Amino acid sequence: MASAAGVDLSGWVENGNPNNNAGTWTVQGVNSDSVLQSRNGTPTVFFDDGPTGTGTNAQGTQLSGTISVGSSTDDDFIGFVLGYQPNEINSATADFWLIDWKRGQQSGQTAGLALSHVSGNLTSTDTGVNGPWWQHDAPVTEVQRAVNLGTTGYAQNRLYAFDLEFTQNLIEVKVDGIVELSYTAAMNGGTFSNGAFGFYNFSQERVTYAGITQQQAPSIPVPAALPLILSGLGAMGALRLRRRND
């Protein structure tokens, strides 16, 4: 498996609901591998739009780094999106995956980390505490809560390490090296649609994603039989060469 490579976030872009610029994302770091989201606003996504502005396909890879929330009186949502397409947060036919983590229990939503399938019409969704982004109601449908952090909010001024694995058949989330979410295509009833990685905030400022790297997903290793096949082909070639020389 190839080693992790740093991700340059300077080409990533923001989408927001109901309008873009719902968040203020400031890329930081010498290698542009960190970003600060500083606005308390409506749902906002910061994602890899690709060199042509048509999005990227992240399936088969793992995104890693750290996430932290600076001192704040707020206690709302931080997280990620998977399989995201440009402006899908405002699409009438959305189909992507949302991983969000709420710090405190509030207005009918518990604290904790969860996975939701965002599928359907997002063009007129309510972005208040009674809307689907907050309550995890359709078209933002919660499908799984974290093993250990399902009812535990994040702490302020603490650095959390994360690993997001996204393949055609698996969505897996690790926090501080521990698997918290693991959702398979079999559970979903079909394979996951391709699309980009992205960061997500809703009603939460002072969020930093740092040291972002990407690599081949651990669940897609080089087939174990491949080295044996290659060595076998090499041996056959050597045998043919010896026969020709005899």
UniProtKB/TrEMBL annotation:
Superkingdom, taxonomy of origin: Bacteria
Signal sequence segment: none
GO cellular component, one term: extracellular region
Domain TSP C-terminal: 1-221
Entry-linked PROSITE patterns: TSP_CTER (PS51236)
MF (Gene Ontology): calcium ion binding
Biological processes per GO annotation: cell adhesion
InterPro entries the record matches: ConA-like_dom_sf, Thrombospondin_C
Matching Gene3D superfamilies: 2.60.120.200
Coiled coil: none
Protein name per the record: PEP-CTERM sorting domain-containing protein
